[in-house]
């Protein structure tokens, strides 16, 4: 669904680029917004994060979302990061860089209004001025605010070890060399020589399934695929001996929801 929403942003950007006349640009843009409103609501990150309204207020595009309380509990932790631009960059990941670039060229700003999907209470209001949008856009283009950056920040806050199923815990989670690593340890001994290709295939399915609860991966999965990011699962036994290593390819992230 995130691709669908990026397409919506792209349509708005095209409407802005159709005319050199500012007045006609804004009229076309306003018409496009009204047409896109007819397609709402749209899921951005499953049912946990849904865009339900879009409006234009002078030079600002206002996007209204509903977020589950569960996702909000995770998302609001970004407020603790000293650089407030990071949370703005995270929200801007719902739009393509090309679309944002056209908004920047035309002096448009963005406002995000986030409400609880359970209570309708406003959870957050984030305003991105035209100047700030330009600054963040430049950093995103340079890779400073990449999806991998967001994942790295989130994993650094993870309280480990954490049990993912009986007899198995995640002991480490980190980003290194452009890849995401998870280290899982089981409470029994394994002989690496007994690991077959069929076993590894089954193990890969289990590893992918275990990642479905990682909201930072779900929310950024399209960007992670675009950036060709691999996730490596390192499996260790009770003696802390590595007995298997699973490579989760970018295309496998489509299974995350």
Topology (elements, then pairings):
Blueprint: H1 2-17, H2 22-37, E1 42-43, E2 49-57, E3 60-67, H3 69-75, H4 85-92, H5 97-105, E4 109-116, E5 122-128, H6 130-141, H7 147-156, E6 162-165, E7 168-176, E8 179-186, H8 197-210, H9 215-219, H10 221-226, E9 231-236, E10 242-248
Parallel strand pairs: 3-4, 8-9
Antiparallel strand pairs: 1-2, 2-3, 4-5, 6-7, 7-8, 9-10
Helix pairs in contact: 1-2, 1-5, 5-6
Quick summary of this structure?
With 257 residues, the chain is α+β, with helices and mostly antiparallel strands.
CATH architectural label of the largest domain = 2-Layer Sandwich
Helix content: 40-55%
The CA-CA distance between the termini, in Å, is 10 Å
Number of strands: 10
Number of domains: 2
Which class of secondary structure composition applies to the elements?
alpha+beta
Oligomerization state of this entry?
A: single chain
Report the principal-axis shape: elongated
Number of helices: 10
Average pLDDT, rounded to a whole number, is 82
What is the N-to-C order of secondary-structure elements (H for helix, E for strand)? HHEEEHHHEEHHEEEHHHEE
* CATH top level class name of the largest domain: Alpha Beta
Describe the strand arrangement of the main beta sheet, using strand numbers.
Answer: 1-2-3-4-5
Spans where pLDDT lies below 50 across 5 or more residues: 1-5
What would the CATH topology of the largest domain be?
Answer: GMP Synthetase, Chain A, domain 3
Task: Work out the radius of gyration.
Answer: 21 Å
Biggest sheet, in brief? 5 strands, mixed
- β-strand percent reads 25-35%
């Amino acid at each position: 669904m995130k691709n669908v929403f990026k397409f919506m942003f792209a349509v708005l950007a095209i409407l802005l680029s159709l005319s050199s006349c500012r007045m006609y640009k804004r009229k076309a843009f306003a018409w496009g917004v009204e047409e896109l409103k007819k397609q709402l609501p749209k899921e951005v990150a499953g049912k946990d994060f849904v865009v339900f309204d879009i409006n234009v207020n002078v030079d600002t595009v206002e996007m209204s979302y509903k977020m589950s309380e569960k996702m909000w509990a995770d998302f609001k932790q970004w407020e603790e990061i000293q650089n407030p631009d990071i949370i703005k960059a995270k929200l801007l990941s719902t739009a393509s860089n090309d679309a944002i670039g056209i908004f920047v060229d035309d002096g448009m700003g963005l406002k995000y209004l986030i409400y609880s999907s359970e209570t309708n209470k406003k959870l957050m209001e984030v305003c991105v001025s035209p100047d700030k949008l330009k600054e963040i856009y430049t950093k995103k283009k340079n890779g400073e605010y990449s999806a991998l950056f967001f994942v790295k920040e989130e994993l650094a806050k993870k309280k480990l070890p954490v049990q993912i199923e009986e007899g198995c815990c995640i002991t480490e989670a980190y980003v290194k060399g452009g890849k995401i690593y998870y280290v899982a340890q089981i409470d029994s001994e394994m002989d690496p020589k007994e690991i077959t290709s069929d076993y590894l295939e089954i193990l890969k399915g289990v590893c992918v399934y275990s990642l479905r609860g990682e909201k930072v991966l779900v929310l950024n999965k399209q960007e992670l695929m675009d950036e060709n990011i691999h996730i490596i699962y390192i499996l260790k036994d009770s003696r802390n001996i590595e007995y298997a290593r699973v490579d989760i390819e970018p295309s496998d992230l489509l299974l995350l929801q």
